[in-house]
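3.2 Worked example (two chains)
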Amino acid sequence: MKKEIQTPSYQTLLKDFDSFITVRNYKLGRGGKMHQNAVTEFLMWMEENGITKIKEITSTEMILYYEYLITRPNKRREGTLAEQTIKSRLYSLSLFMQNLLENRSIESGFYIPSYGGNGTSKIRNTLTVEEIKLVYAYCENDLESALLSVAYGCGLRRSELESLNVRDIQLSTGELIVREGKGSKRRVVPMSDTVIESVRKYIHNERHERVLNSEHFEDAFFVNMRGSRMRGEHLNDTLKKMIEQTNSYELVQKEITLHCLRHSIANHLAENHAEIEFIRRFLGHTEINTAYIYAIKNKKRNKITTFLK
């Protein structure tokens, strides 16, 4: 890799970043040089791979850069970069993106992977909008349609799907209530028209038939053939079956889980310029920077209405 940044706009961004970390005291000790070196290497890698405008950086480039980072040789000793070094580089990039968002060099940001150690990443496989539509098209019953609609369209965690009750579905207002999410946090999630219709059909048809012959009253939203609450493992197995129904080798190889659907909707919201605060509340995150860093522009409910059409 060359030693200096050639692109004038990148040179300017690097100077701006230097001012950014100076004002916030990130340059104390060895930190300043570490952050500068990390961002310099990042921008030079982008240059060498034909990305000369900061707004051209997408999740694809970030994944490729991450793969480069965890496999590139260590310049001071044998082997690759140490785990702590990789984590520090990724942290420096999160500061850089914060600076880019603040000075409006970018309107919506790229996500930054979290390093899992042992050469692994916490990046989860996700589906594209077209792949979501494909799975939806191959749903064989109302339960499958409702599961995809709620897991993806509402971004629920597996545990939240399992504990969801019928009383948590407010069809009249188009809202879904997560009464106790991660950290015992309650949140209200908006439902798109497509999600509302899938949920309505499931409640009035398949779910109604399943609980009709049940020996006890069950308020659970997702119920099995005996009318009892479906557990998380059963819901995941149902999704796996739905993926296999598409006969798509590529989809099957992705090993998609319910939590992957949650990350998929987060990606799609970010790509459609949803506000970072909206995404945070939509997913029930305590902090903005969690597994991914999502960036923002407009907070509009219709951002979640187009994906399942």
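3.2.1 Second chain
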Amino acid sequence: MTTASVSQSCFPIMSFLHVPGKMSQPLWLMMGTAFLVNVSRRTGAAACPFGSADASDGVDSSAHKRRRFLLTAKHTFVPWQFTDPQRLKVPEEYRRTRFVIGRLYIPDSEGKAVASLSVDLKLVAMHPTADVAVLVAKVPTSVASVAAGTASRSAVSERFDAHAELERRANAVGGGLTLAPEDPQKGSVCSIAGYRGTGLLGKLDTFDPDLLDRLSETERGQLLSSLRCVEGQQEAAVARVKIFHSKGMCRAEEGSCFHGMSGAPVLTDEKTCGGVLYGKHPDDANSVGYVPVRSFDGFVWDSVIGK
């Protein structure tokens, strides 16, 4: 599988912390990957159509067709839930999802994020225990932003261009990836397609508060330089993995999983998601951890029908 073959469903994303009245501009939190999920149908034993027009399930199919839902790793939006928050140096009163901004970036033909083509994301729901979150792409509003002086006409035009491209790609893949009816079994081979940080941003764990202390002076300078402007510093990457344990452990056989790929789908084929990548497995540093699809498909369904 090549990066081009999955680029229509997967996108680079970033999260930022912005506390109105306290920050002059958003502070970058995390980079990750998100992917479009097909909400036109549900598979599995409890199959039930996403967006069904049947009155018994209370879903407005026309409304869901107008919205683009994506899945990603929860820690991209709430990193303080996955590490010692004191070491992140984010004050407790700022650790609120209402202060977190999400952005999706349209990649170019070479699989590199284009900083000027971004789509705002809304956090719809976070799984109570698993590292999975549901997002929805916000539809840009132009007139109000320009009239209020909060956005230039060129910036608004770029937002509409980005959203139009997201729509085009979503339509090209039938809305997004389908959730697999079964978890990938031990021994099966899958692909993980996502977006890594370029250069050192993809090789080093920027989530680690002690990272700078362990780098050489040259590496520290390079990393700090890249951190001054992180938008646009993501590129497509694909790894071929073998499932080591059906409960969420796999190992790379070809390629690697880099930093920034958290939230990427574990693909059983080019159209089907068997899980969501979250990073290194906590019980085995040589293995990659992911959340198996059957442990969160019901959560996705419940999140979508309520929106």
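3.3 Remarks
The domain at 3-305 is CATH 2.40.10.120 (Thrombin, subunit H).
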